[in-house]
Predict the structure of Deoxyribodipyrimidine photo-lyase.
Amino acid sequence: MEDKIAVFWFRRDLRLEDNVALHHALNSGFKVLPIFIFDEEIINTLPKQDARITFIYKSLKEIDNQLKTIGSSLRVLKGEPLEIWDKLVLDYKVKKVFFNKDYEPYALKRDESVKALLKSKGIETHTYKDQVIFEADEVLKANQTPYTVYTPYKNQWLKQFDVDKHVKLFDCQEFKSNFVSVNINFPKLVSIGFEESSIKVKPYSLDDLVQYDAVRDFPALDKTSHLSPYLRFGLVSIRQVVKHAFNTNAVFLSELIWREFFMQILFNFPKVVTQNFKPKYDAVIWRNDPTDFKKWCAGQTGYPLVDAGMRQLNQTGYMHNRVRMITAGFLCKHLLIDWRWGEAYFAEKLLDFELASNNGNWQWAAGTGCDAAPYFRIFNPTTQIQKFDKNLEYIKKWVPEFQELTYPKPIINHKEARERCLKVYREALN
């Protein structure tokens, strides 16, 4: 092991290509030790066969395999990050630490603690923007306050975007000889406290983006990119995805801008994690019936499109975006169950769970968010079938018994549910 080294900390950027902080680490003048920490604050609440942990683990294994071809290794650690860093700087002569920024409330607090620890030991910390094109304070209104409505945010985002400036490649391959020469055994998944999940992450594809806006709303076609888990954990560079979208399909680019919109909302208004963005909705009296919630979770509401979505989620970790809107709206408005219940369930099940987008979209569905569907917009789950699954292909796949006597009756009549929802919301807002 070389005397003085730099450490690169993998987090939401599990790739060796076009990685900003890694690029700078490899150009720091020190040999680079790459590490990953399974943060016990995050993983201790997860089930033993969590599909996302399996995905992360296999992604790290692939990185380690690539590093071993050049005589290096990835050091995988598990524990409380501050304690791990305290020990790590005793094991190695660390001069500099590099990592890409994370903008979630817990991550911000954790990273400040790590930076303070490293500073106390005379170690430089260098952090970089990598998972977004624009950070939380880079797209602002003329009065330097954050946008809270998507369309003007998007317009300003596009106005500031320069395809040559913002999607340049941060090469890491040219400097791969700058990793430390070390052979570290890669841990078994069981030693981290998990078992391999049977749920698999689908390969992503950007090949059909030209047709994206024409086919994206039809769940039976399954023509979305399946990119989101890869983007969530940084197996792909947002810069390269945005560049491709910018040159291919404006609607897909808009979806990527929604991602950054919700990230800056979470950063600037961290209260949204547990509170309504619009305080006036605090007065909504949720029914929060646990039996209804259990039926919704299990895909047993008697509404085939809602049930198909929930069963797809439970069995695969995926749910088509159009169906996410329908199932979320149904929980909040038909059943009058607090959006936080649904958000937590999606957080447990979704392969692509990402706090800002999950929170933003749930508050959108409930009408409580910054740029939300109005409370009186209530999807009819039956007419949605005519619009998006008229041949019943998606429903037949996930709810094969929907035309049989064994299939449950609707949990509530749509007309009655709509009237009840409007009454509850109106009373809360008056």
The chain has three domains: 1-129, 132-168+208-268, 273-429. The longest strand covers residues 31-39. The chain has a mean pLDDT of 96.
